[in-house]
Amino acid sequence: MSEEVNDAPRAVPRSMVWGLCVNAVLAFGFAIALLYTMGDFQKALDSPTGYPIIEIFYAQTGSKAASSAMMLPILLSGCYSSFNVLASVSRLTWAFARDEGFPFSSFFAHVSPRYKIPLRSLFLVTTITVLIALINIGSSAAFNAVLSLDTLALYISYLVPILFMLIKRVRFPGEIRYGPFNLGRFGVPINTFAMLYGTYITVFLPWPETQPVTASGMNYGAPVFGVALLFAVIDWFVRGHKKWNGPTVMTAPK
């Protein structure tokens, strides 16, 4: 979505850093308040609602109405964030389709002349999201298997650009075109630490959380990621390598 932002090289990094800092402070305060008021944590875990946070609110207020009122901001924040996710992922899909990196790229790269947004990409993302949610009706284990891909895929997506940036910093430092912000001489150690930490997390994320491993307790992150990666590799050899020329670099007029 940075292509839709004025002065993106400055505005986007600032928004990311400030968003992280503000949310970290708020989350820390919320966690401290929760820890001091949660009471019997086992009772919260065994809540009949299935959500410990509801049990904690109810234990402290003794009122269903008050507990519901306290849950409302959390639910609203989830709803608001879902709109942001749809907006960002639909534009990511559109950008990838525009660069011929997506199956049926010409169709999904279309931008609605009336609404000025990639409606087809938005409908695709929304449809896939709804279909994934419907899996939970038939099998919660299958639903959790799909969701288990989330964190693993995110960490791998972080590691890939960091790895290439680190290689570039070490082998070809003169070829890097920095933006308004850069890590300077701290870039290599910070990138190295990020690679080590990300690799450590990625190795242990796919492991099951409990022993013995059962079908319902199995962590399906690695198998699901493997299937997704297999489809990507097949698409690359069948279609992608013929059309993919790298991302389109768009610069705002001065």
TrEMBL record:
Keywords: Membrane, Transmembrane, Transmembrane helix, Transport
Record's bilayer topology term: Multi-pass membrane protein
Annotated transmembrane regions: 16-36, 122-143, 149-167, 188-208, 220-238
Subcellular location: Membrane
GO MF term (any one): transmembrane transporter activity
One Pfam family of this chain: AA_permease_2
Position of the signal peptide: none
Classification via Gene3D superfamilies: Amino acid/polyamine transporter I
Protein name (database record): Amino acid permease
One cellular component term from this protein's GO annotations in UniProt: membrane
